[in-house]
Design brief:
By secondary structure, this protein is an alpha+beta fold. The protein folds into 2 domains: about 110 residues; about 140 residues, OmpA-like domain (60s Ribosomal Protein L30, Chain: A). The chain contains 7 helices and 5 strands, in the order H-H-H-E-E-H-H-E-H-E-H-E. A hairpin with a 2-residue loop joins strand 1 and strand 2. Helix 1 runs antiparallel to helix 2.
């Protein structure tokens, strides 16, 4: 018995360590992005200051040439063109600086939301029932399908309902935000009387989660459901462990338009 318990204990500790490292990696990535934006802001501030100094110098030079009878029209025109060009460069730099400030504010807001969600779901995250992460630039709650549904089914298990009730209650603090519930499967094909393929199963599971959350009190107009079948894996479907990770429900925080990078104006 002792020889059996030891590997199990080691495996449990390894899984716990992997979860901790994943959470730390996600937070570190967000912090690194924020630090990178701060560095870019510092560079752009310096560029604005440098151009301010250059503009002042050119204005002084231009003033001097206007009072100097020996200065040719060509020299004066060259100074005026250089001044106009530098002023235009400064305006462009200031626009970039404003956009970087907006991006940094949005990054800080996302980081604050991540920390708030992490704290809200601390008990579930610590238990390994739930993961809070950034994926594809979006904040995501990941729940293994095995926690919520029996194999090949879209009916919530008793344990799944308990878990989802806890998740919904915690998300009520963010009920003014929109969430997308996404269902995912592994690559094993399914074909039953109820589910034609994995698209049907993944979508049915997402809809079931949305129905449960609405019945639990979450605003229906803040939720949407989608099924991705096996087309958006997070691990290798060639291993049992990878397939288990791919069978999941994701609750994705939909970003506000103000959190998205500013779109360039369409060329005319």
């Amino acid at each position: 018995m002792r020889t059996l318990r030891t590997p199990l204990l080691i495996a449990a500790l390894a899984l716990a360590l992997t979860g901790c490292l994943a959470k730390k990696s996600t937070l570190d990535a967000a912090l690194a992005k924020n630090k990178d934006l701060e560095a870019q802001l510092a560079d752009e501030r310096k560029n604005v200051a440098d151009r301010d100094n250059r503009i002042k110098g050119l204005e002084d030079e231009l003033g001097a040439t206007r009072g100097d009878l020996t200065t040719t029209d060509a020299e004066r025109k060259r100074k005026e063109e250089e001044l106009a060009r530098t002023q235009a460069e400064k305006e462009a730099t200031e626009a970039e600086l404003a956009e970087l400030r907006r991006q940094k504010e949005a990054a800080e807001a996302r980081l604050a939301s991540y920390r708030a969600l992490q704290e809200r779901f601390k008990s579930l995250v610590d238990a390994g029932t739930l993961e809070v992460a950034f994926r594809n630039g979006q904040m995501t709650l990941k729940l293994p399908s095995g926690v919520l549904f029996p194999s090949g089914s879209a009916d919530l298990s008793t344990a799944g309902k308990t878990t989802l009730q806890q998740v919904t209650e915690a998300l009520m603090a963010f009920k003014d935000r929109r969430f997308l519930v996404a269902g995912h499967t592994d690559s094993d094909p399914i074909k039953t009387r109820k589910f034609k393929n994995n698209w049907f199963l993944s979508t049915a599971r997402a809809v079931q989660v949305v129905d449960f959350m609405v019945e639990a009190g979450f605003p229906a107009d803040k939720l949407a459901a989608a099924g991705y079948a096996d087309k958006d894996p997070v691990a290798d479907n060639g291993t049992p462990e990878g397939k288990e990770l791919n069978r999941r429900i994701e609750i994705i925080l939909v970003p506000d338009l103000s959190e998205l990078p500013q779109l360039a104006e369409e060329p005319k």
